[in-house]
Protein 1
Amino acid sequence: MPWILLAGAIALEVFATTMLKLSAGFSRLLPSIGVVAGYLGAFVLLAFVLKTLPVGTIYALWAGLGTALVAVVGVLAFAEPLTAPKVGGIVLIIGGVVMLNLSGAH
């Protein structure tokens, strides 16, 4: 169950960050509400996950996968360029998360 909550927290973080872009500096009401609701929900779910799983691994997964997914959303939804350094960064983030999990950090 904690892993499902973590997936939800990551999804809400990606949603909230996307809404942050769409809010245009909090000048648009509905995306601004989405920012607050998304981050609030993400942190609530993250708090529940941290009751049972180790903080180092969980935070690395939450931040790393969230960052990689936001970069993908930027490319797909906002037509941001997909450059070699961006791809390399995403690969390094995902590789780091995998290494943390394989190293027995959990």
Protein 2
Amino acid sequence: MDNGLKEKLEADLKNSLLKGEKDKANVLRFLLSLIHNREIEKRSTGQAPVLTDEEVIEVIQREVKKRNEAVELFKKGGRNDLAEKEIKELSFINSYLPPQMTKGEIEALVSELKSKGLNDFGSLMKEAVKVTKGRADGKLVSEIVRNALNAG
């Protein structure tokens, strides 16, 4: 089982502590604690307590989603200072995720899948999510799939 991403997070934490980058170190500590909690969850279900890179990415993506929602709420509440802090932390976190697909790439993928005979929402969405897993927001994929089906 590869555990390269977690090790990279740990190494980056050590480096940021040595360089005195407190903000980055705090974010990395938090991510590592989330990963550790997920390992404990796995252990309690009788599975091997080591997370694969894919599982680590899932943990990080959940955190990105929460922070994006927090940014929106802070902006609505007029707390731009807190929104800026979240955005800064998101930039650290996003650097550990695989590059995100563009809307155009997702649209091309969906139309390709549709041309292979997947013409109902469930099957088209299932295949699209399988291919875009970890590289695209599910809400965006769903919107593109709906638009493709409505377009005919």
